[in-house]
Amino acid sequence: MHIKRLAEIAGRFDGMLIDQFGVIHDGEKLYPGTLDVLKNLQRLKIPVGVMTNSGKRSLANRERLLSLGVPRNFFVTAISSGEVAYHMIGRKKAFVIGKANENYGFDGIPVVGDVAQADVILILGSDAPNTTMAQYRDFFSSTSLPAICCNPDKLMLTKQGLQPAPGAIAELYENMGGQVQWIGKPYGEIYAAALKAIGNPHKVLCIGDSAEHDVAGGRGAGLATLQVMTGISAGLDPATLHPQADYVMDAFVW
Question: What is the pTM assigned to this prediction?
């Protein structure tokens, strides 16, 4: 069902799980309709959980939303795949794959600089285009450690356009025979955490720009889904996307 505005269906739901990158903002600024949507959801007392496939923990993602101008009372929580993974790792010694000089907030996790000393590989981010997929392949050819992918997204928005995201790096390792545990959308753990955070409402709508992650994940969790044709889906024909969402909207507007 194609809708023009979220207001057409918002009253059918008592909770919203909304993707961050590609729906609320483009990585640098809010999309034009974002604040109006969130303000009206607050007015209707519909709790909002912002969900993100980010290797960073939830605090960093909350701070990003605030820095972009989203009032703190417009959302209940910003739950990240990195936060879910952090609580699952325990005290394993980790070798981190991520963006150079990035702080992912994994304080308390023993991080080592030599993969030979690690118990697990944490795929938290991507350094593309500075590090190529061929270079990641060369690295993986020298190890057989289990890996945890804390961001299943295959593509990410950058100033250089779409680039391979952590999910693409993890997929490469898995295709080479590596053992990968996936944390984040579309996998169930992040939905359980997000639903709990917003009070486990009965009728929840998942909103996102990725059919592979947001729509598939929402459907897998037994929730209604809305595909927004921005972010990584900008310019695509919604009829070609799989899986199909319950609702499609061109932009995140009220």
Answer: 0.87
